Each structure stands twice: as structure tokens, then as C-alpha cells.
Amino acid sequence: MAQCTAKSKRSKEQCLKWAVRGRSTCSMHGGTSRGPATRCGKERSRLAVTKHGKYTEKAQLVRREIMAMVRECKNVLNLLA
Ligand SMILES: [Zn+2]
Fold first, then answer.
1. Could you read off the pLDDT of 38-53 as tens digits, one per residue?
2. Which of 5, 11, 35, 49 is most deeply packed, by most CB within 10 A?
3. What is the distance in A from the centroid of ligand 1 to the CA of 28?
4. Spacing, Cα 73 to ligand 1 middle (Å)
5. C-alpha angle with apex 68: 64 to 73, nearest 5 degrees?
6. Largest CA-CA distance found in the chain, in angstroms, rounded
7. What's the 3-state SS for 21-40?
């Protein structure tokens, strides 16, 4: 059994309660929470967490492709120089 890993916002001290079995936090700090259960709840949670879309799968894929092109351009320029 482990101690709860939650820390106080004000005092910055760690919670002194025992964590829920198999979890890292006590029941007061979400150890018994199973997250959103319904499809509607999961969608609401997903939307609430998405703030700007910078880290969505599509945005990351586009960024990765752009960086691959930049790397390719740099390689070509290095070969010419
Ligand atoms: Zn706690």
C-alpha cells in the first residue's frame, strides 16, 4: 500500500492518507474515480480537455510532415554547400 501522491495547492505538502489499492491517490483525491462512463460524458471530457487543438493527432501529423520537409530541405542545402 502506498501513500497518496496528491499535494496541497496552498501548503505544497503531500496528502497523508493511504492511496486506494491499485491507484496512486486516496479516495478524497480521485483514487476511486473511474472517469467518465457514458459516451456523452467521455465526449464532454474530451472537449473540456482540448483547449486549442495543437496536440490533436491531425495537428501533430501535419507538424511532423512539415518538419520532415524542413529536414529534407536542410539536407539538400548542406549537399549543395
Ligand atoms: Zn490524498
1. 999 999 988 888 888 8
2. 5
3. 6
4. 52
5. 150
6. 64
7. CCCCCCHHHCCCCCCCCCHH
